[in-house]
UniProtKB/TrEMBL annotation:
Entry-linked Pfam families: Abhydrolase_3
Designated name of the protein: Carboxylesterase 11
SUPFAM superfamilies cross-referenced by the UniProt entry: alpha/beta-Hydrolases
PANTHER family attached to this UniProt entry: ARYLACETAMIDE DEACETYLASE, CARBOXYLESTERASE 11-RELATED
Annotated ranges, domain Alpha/beta hydrolase fold-3: 114-311
UniProt similarity note: Belongs to the 'GDXG' lipolytic enzyme family.
InterPro entries: AB_hydrolase_3 (IPR013094), AB_hydrolase_fold (IPR029058), Carboxylest/Gibb_receptor (IPR050466)
Top-level division of the source organism's lineage: Eukaryota
GO molecular function terms noted in the UniProt entry: hydrolase activity
Length: 336
């Protein structure tokens, strides 16, 4: 049984979330800039990035990757990525102070990458909040991996499919970075072979829109990518995974090897037995969940069997449930 402290925390969390949802429903939403949106709330506790390795052994960096929206990324790089030297400099006035990988890749260890999507019932949270910073830092250290936290657009300022589109944009950007890094290494190898001196030139894409990100160029292993999401972030991670399957080789050399869905925010018009049993428990409140979906889905399409909310809307029939169960069993037998 959960402890008393956990129950009290859950009740307080539910109360605060429900109050915030009700406030957002009653407040007029600004549509003056529909392309921009918001990625965090004013009342959130924010942690600034630190590109130098801190006491917790993780360096962080913020990036904005889409000029048309406020989509942002925060990279968490564990110090275990360094084999010998930290290459971390203390910046003087006007100079960069942070980790700088060796140009030739010396002392740089390749790490898997975890693309992380935060929770928050579609309307709150962020990739730069205190809770996200702690979670992603611990994840990077414990998994010995690069964590890229995605700051997707929040509802109701940006309703479906904005958050899902941001997830797809993030995986596309990661694939582009992997390709730019490979081009950079090939170009550098040729210049070294010809006896030329590297002068700090960088590879950019065909239109000059993207430059290779040095941390990823030095440490990213594109063959080991994991999609991880918490609560509504798990819904985004699942959508991105489906996109990856459809895209096929268009995302090469990025290879998604796993997805981790932590209590995904799925729901449906026909409640399951557990949803009926726990409808007003300390942990789950269906009325609050419906409020969140009301703010996220298009205003004219509040359907809890929407594909963003319910992967298997036909599971209300036993025969469909059993077919889904047999399908999962078949995948497990094939070690997929």
């Amino acid at each position: 049984m959960p402890s008393l402290i956990l129950k009290v925390y859950s009740l307080l969390f539910k109360y605060n979330l429900k109050r915030q949802l009700q406030t957002l429903i009653q407040s007029p939403v600004s549509v003056s800039d529909p392309f921009n949106g918001v990625v965090s709330r004013a009342d959130e506790s924010i942690v600034t990035s630190n590109p130098a390795f801190s006491k917790d052994g993780v360096a962080t960096k913020d990036l904005h990757i889409d000029p048309l929206t406020c989509l942002s990324l925060r990279i968490f790089l564990p110090q275990s990525a360094l084999i010998s030297s930290t290459n971390s400099v203390a910046g003087t006035e006007g100079a960069y102070g942070g980790y700088q990988p060796d140009i030739n890749g010396k002392g740089c260890k390749k790490l898997p990458v975890i693309l992380q999507f935060h929770g928050g019932a579609w309307v709150t949270g962020g990739n730069d909040t205190a809770s996200s910073d702690v979670f992603c830092s611990k994840l990077a250290k414990s998994c010995d991996a690069i964590v890229i936290a995605v700051g997707y657009r929040l509802a109701p300022e940006s309703r479906f499919p904005a958050a899902f589109e941001d997830g797809v944009m993030a995986i596309k950007w990661l694939a582009k970075q992997a390709n730019l890094a490979e081009c950079g290494r090939s170009s550098l190898d040729k210049r070294i072979a010809n006896g030329e001196t590297y002068r700090g030139r960088q590879i950019v894409d065909g239109f000059g829109a993207s430059m290779v990100e040095p941390w990823l160029a030095a440490h990213l292993d594109p063959s080991r990518c994991v999609l991880l999401g918490v609560s509504c972030g798990a819904n985004i991670a699942n959508y991105v995974a489906r996109y990856v399957v459809e895209a096929g080789k268009l995302l090469d050399p990025i290879t998604v090897v796993a997805q981790v869905l932590i209590y995904p925010f799925f729901i449906g018009n026909i409640p399951t037995n557990s949803e009926l049993k726990l409808a007003n428990s300390y942990l789950y409140d269906k009325a609050t969940c419906i409020l969140a979906w009301k703010l996220f889905l298009p205003e004219t399409d509040l359907d809890l069997d929407h594909l963003a909310a319910n992967l298997f809307p036909l599971m209300i029939f036993p025969m469909y449930f059993h077919r889904c169960y047999l399908f999962i069993s078949h995948l497990l037998n094939l070690a997929i």
